[in-house]
Amino acid sequence: MARNRPCVVMAWAAFVLPLTLIGADADEQEDREAIRALFHQEQEGHRLGDEQMVRTAHWEDFYVIGTPHIDGVSRYMLSGINLGKDYLAGFNYQPRPTTDESGFSSEVNHIAINGDVALAVTQFNYWGPSDGGISNAGHQAMWIAEKRNDTWKWKSVIVGFETFRELRPAPQADEEAE
Questions:
Q1: In CATH, which of 3.30.70.980, 3.10.129.10, 3.40.1260.20, 3.10.450.50 is domain 2-177?
Q2: What is the pTM of this model?
Q3: For 124-145, what is each residue's pLDDT tens digit?
Q4: For residue range 50-59, what is the model confidence (pLDDT) as tens digits?
């Protein structure tokens, strides 16, 4: 019997180890889906003008780190921090109008999870008429989510480190007719 122990241990490990990994992968996949759903909940709340929907996506100790841009360059030495209550109070919670000429979209580009803390990189795009043409602009944000009591919510966000804006001339009257 003692001679067969290594075989029994190896057979047990070959069976149990993959089951453990499958469980870990399933848990991480659930966490990723929960973080994506959290982002979409917060964004949908902004779109609908639903303040409660937005606020419930953030922990009470949520904060924002913002980096200003001057002449298209991030000025990290001018970065500041805002408490979430002040940041969230600054929104005009009204439904966003949608038209054929203007729009807004947002998406999650990357998620990294380490236990009960996660990083989500998101991208925002907005477009519409602007002085002298059509504006296409956007920015990225890095969100930190924390899982407390089996619930994911936003702990912080870093904004202003990556932005873009381009202005295209408005189409000529005869181009619109074509």
A1: 3.10.450.50
A2: 0.76
A3: 888 888 887 888 888 899 999 9
A4: 999 999 999 9
Please return the burial class of 35, using the count of CB atoms within 10 Å of its CB with bins 0-12, 13-18 and 19+.
Answer: buried
H-helix segments, the chain: 5-48, 51-55, 84-89, 173-177
φ and ψ at residue 11, rounded to 5 degrees: -65, -40
Tokens of 69: 């841009």
79-92, pLDDT tens digit by residue?
999 999 998 888 88
Q: Are 137 and 123 in contact (CB under 8 A)?
A: no
